[in-house]
Amino acid sequence: MKPSSFSGKIINRIIFAFLIACSFNALAANNWSYHQESDRQTNRTYSFARSPLPTRGLSDDIKLEIVCKDNKLQVVIETDSLIASQNSTFDVEYQIDKKPPVTIQMRTFKDSKRKGYSDDYGKRIADDILTGKSIFIRVHTLIKKVLSGSMSLENAAEPITRVFSDCGLTVADNVTSEPAYSLPEFEQEFNKLSPEQQQQVLGRIKKMMMEMH
Q: What's the predicted TM-score (pTM) here?
């Protein structure tokens, strides 16, 4: 084998591996993720589900976390901009899909002006997240500036479920407000499918019905 040919194959393999690594990193950045860390002050392990990285230029940099700490569910918001002075309250609005916005009050941490939390609304927000496809957030800052951002809730269920488990909760305990899938909704979606896809769906439904008898 010629040296130039051998070198070319090695270079191609390196480029291919690099592209795969970039693809995995991009995929991770666009998905909710599960993490475990240790509290520096108490040396206790806590877990959290973190939202995807925001799309730069389209919204403010807002990160959302559902945290299990000391067996208590907590919601944490972090931004790159000033929210309020340390240990101060501020208002947050969040909207799941096209549902009416919900306003809650959060408090900045004692050592941060850009990061806040709520112990009272952690469970409620987690409940709502598990019933939606996207969430839009507005953070009302001390200087009257409103920080806003939208993030997908796709793939949020798995990491949040793990956080629930760490806090001794289950999805069944939390997902209580998800609307039922109605027959008109099914018919509307079914009519959008091709004849071949409709036959596939009907075949699966027939199999499910037979298994239920």
A: 0.67
Return the higher-pLDDT residue of 4 and 132: 132
Q: How many residues does the chain have?
A: 213
Amino acid identity at 167: C
**Residue of 102, 107, 139, 109 whose CA lies nearest to 124:** 102
Q: What is the mean pLDDT of residues 124-146?
A: 93
Tens of pLDDT, residues 150-208: 988 988 999 999 999 999 987 655 454 444 556 667 777 888 888 888 888 888 887 77
Q: Which residues contact 170 (CB under 8 A, 6 or more apart)?
A: 164
Residue 137's contacts (CB-CB under 8 Å, 6 or more residues apart) are 62, 64, 77, 92, 93, 94, 95, 148, 149, 150, 151
Which 8-state DSSP code applies to residue 148? E
Backbone angles phi, psi at 151, to 5 degrees: -140, 150
Beta bridge partners of 148: 138
- Annotate 46-88 with DSSP letters as a single string: EEEEEPPPPPBTTB--EEEEEEEETTEEEEEEEESS---STT-
Tokens of 122: 């952690």
